[in-house]
Amino acid sequence: MLEPRHEALDPSPAAIDIAALLYPELAALAVEIVDQIREQIPEYAVPLGGASSAPIRNGIEEGLHQLLAHFIIGTPIENRNAEFYRRLGRGEFREGRSLDALQAAYRISARVTWRHFAQAGHKAGVSPRLMYLLADNVFAFTEEMAALSVSAFTELRDLTTSAFEQSRQRLLRLLLTEPAQAVRTRLADLSLTARWPLPDSVACVAISEDYDASRMISPALDADILADLQHPDPCLLIPHAPSPARFHNLRRAFRGVEFALGPTVPLEDAAHSLALARQTLALKSQGVLSDEEHIRSEDHLATMHLLRDDAIMRVLYRRALAPFGELKKEQRDRLCETLLAWISTGGSVMEVAALLRIHPQTVRYRMRRIEEIFPDRLNDPDWRFEMQLALRARQLTLHCRRRKQSQTSGRRRPNTASPRPAR
Predict the structure, then answer these.
(1) Closest to 15 in 3D by CA, of 75, 58, 59, 82
(2) 31-34 long-range CB contacts below 8 Å, 24 or more apart?
(3) Backbone φ, ψ for residue 118 (5° rounding)
């Protein structure tokens, strides 16, 4: 609150005379202020109309009396009047309006008041020095009243926002930790407090732990997204199946930050969506999946399933591919590549040749060699399925290994343009 003006602590007879001149005008002035506010601010046209305007008009008149007391002896706003201005600020928040309209109303009030006072003072022949001091008091007092309203508005907004955000955070945590069968019954009331209707399905987003909420601008997220960006494993929860537009908005909001979008699942399985999203992000960091900054788990479900149990896959890998162990590496790589293509294309020589960009006769030669290694197995569907799993696992492992080697060699490659250090 602004300090009262001390220039008027020892009131002069002239200041008292001005106040006596203006007091009879205050009731009519309050009516004029209300009328001007209704006319110039559409948001207040209905609320300040008819009998409903009486409390506001009475509050304005009390404020005008306080203004003159402030002018004469520097009296601060009394507790009763201060609460009136605070109530105006809280009312704006509860009505869902910003402070723009209320602050415009204060500006209108100050202009109308000063215009009315100036006309009365000019007519009575009041000295310019006293009129300047009165003008200063009008605008300073108005600023003080507005500050009370702004303070009350901000306090209520912060309190409400804090409670609202806390309820949304609690709702997100419970959705990701509660037993599936208890979700809808336990969270019904909390979803109302959080203003987040429980959807039938959701999708979770796992965000890279490199995300640093304290150093980055908060991303612009849709209001219906539940977010937890403060913990070591930041995540989002999106209601319903994310549309392409939603995914695009997420990519734009988290540009420069890796994330994985989990599959859309029933609400009760939200934790599973997040687990798959985190698994996708982990495989991406290992170099197994796409280099893209933002990826979808649903595009890599087969790979994720294949690599889910590393111990089992290693046993399957060794057993299925053991007969290739006697071959040289180059020959083993060519036959594994050909066998995987042959199984994947349903045994079509021409398709394998096109896929591998080799001559069909080369495919036939390699397949005869494979048949020698695995006699009477190529037409066994169970063997083909198991071999396909093993070969795909091998392909993923080699791809991951090559990427790591490439990254390592890139980091270690010397800069030939740099001078050698002196010995």
Answers:
(1) 75
(2) 31/57, 32/112, 32/116, 33/60, 33/108, 33/109, 33/112, 33/113, 34/60
(3) -65, -40
CB 67 within 8 A of CB 137: yes
**Cβ atoms of 286 and 267 closer than 8 Å:** no
* DSSP 8-state assignment for residue 201: E
Q: Are 304 and 276 in contact (CB under 8 A)?
A: yes
Residue whose token pair is 């490659």: 413
The string of DSSP codes covering 12-71 is -HHHHHHHHHHGGGHHHHHHHHHHHHHHH-GGGTTTTSGGGGHHHHHHHHHHHHHHHHHH
Tell me the pLDDT of the chain (423 aa) as tens digits: 333 344 444 456 777 777 788 888 888 888 888 888 888 988 888 777 776 678 888 888 888 888 888 777 765 655 557 888 888 888 887 777 778 888 898 999 999 988 888 888 888 888 888 888 888 888 888 888 889 888 888 887 776 656 677 788 888 888 888 755 556 667 777 788 788 888 989 999 999 887 775 554 567 788 899 988 877 788 999 999 999 999 998 998 888 889 999 999 998 889 999 999 998 888 887 777 767 889 998 887 777 776 666 666 777 777 888 888 888 888 988 999 999 899 888 888 999 999 999 999 999 999 999 999 998 888 888 888 888 888 887 877 776 666 666 655 555 554 444 333 333
Superfamily covering domain 6-161: Globins (1.10.490.10)
Find out whether 21 and 47 touch, Cβ atoms under 8 Å.
no
Residue with structure tokens 């605070």?
Answer: 86
What is d(CA 370, CA 342) in angstroms, rounded to the nearest whole number?
11
Q: Which two tokens stand for residue 368?
A: 């005869």
The one-letter amino acid code at 85 reads Y
CA distance 189 to 39: 43
Half-sphere exposure of 15 toward its Cβ, with a 13 Å CA cutoff? 21
Rounded to an integer, what distance in angstroms lies between the CA atom of residue 21 and that of residue 9? 20
